[in-house]
Amino acid sequence: MSRQHEVEVLELARGGLVIYPTETFYALGCLATMHQAVEKIISAKGRPADKPLPLIVSDWEMAERFLRLTKAEEELARKFWPGPLSIVAEVDPRVSPLAKDHTGRSAVRMSPHVIAARLCHEAGAPLVSSSANRSGLPPVCRPDELDSELVRDSGALVIASTPWPSGGLPSTLVKIVGAESVRILRAGAISAREIIAAGVEVLS
């Protein structure tokens, strides 16, 4: 691990926030298992506390430790992860209540971005992956586009290394509603057509 990587992981371990690139946009994140850090993200973004924060996992080993995927959820994830498909799934009790709904479920994906995946792996737990912008404002994909007030108020460490996010659409958010069917809760980078082509029915 390089010195810079050590600094980033130490920041997360001590309950700090990090702004890091993902495959879509810059994310404001922290260790999802550190409740006070998750509270800082909600405060900095001005995000409603009853709106769970999305998560990323680094790899399948972490998915097995922190996610409680049903057979149908895992089969769908195996088709699209790593990739910009977020699946509503039950998560480990160690994850902050602010990063899951009242049923213990979060929107989770496995990011293919080299920096996001590496940071999450080295941190050893899922990361909050909320877009690095104030609630209601557009996400960004360059470090010089980041809201300076958000950076200041959050106290987040900014990872400006390339590759930067590719922009475009956010991750597609789906919920399993049958053995081989899903409902799209948010349209995004993976189209309904791609999901259907993978042998999964998309319900309206």
UniProtKB/TrEMBL annotation:
Q: Which GO terms describe its cellular component?
A: cytoplasm
Swiss-Prot/TrEMBL GO biological process terms: regulation of translational fidelity; tRNA processing
PROSITE patterns membership? YRDC (PS51163)
Localisation: Cytoplasm
Does this entry carry the keyword Chaperone? no
Database matches in InterPro entries: DHBP_synth_RibB-like_a/b_dom, Sua5-like_dom, TC-AMP_synthase_SUA5
Top-level taxon of the source organism: Bacteria
State whether keyword rRNA processing applies.
no
What family, per the record?
A: Belongs to the SUA5 family.
Write down the PANTHER family for this protein, in alphabetical order: SUA5 (PTHR17490), THREONYLCARBAMOYL-AMP SYNTHASE (PTHR17490:SF16)
Protein known as: L-threonylcarbamoyladenylate synthase
* Organism this protein belongs to: Desulfomicrobium norvegicum (strain DSM 1741 / NCIMB 8310) (Desulfovibrio baculatus (strain Norway 4))
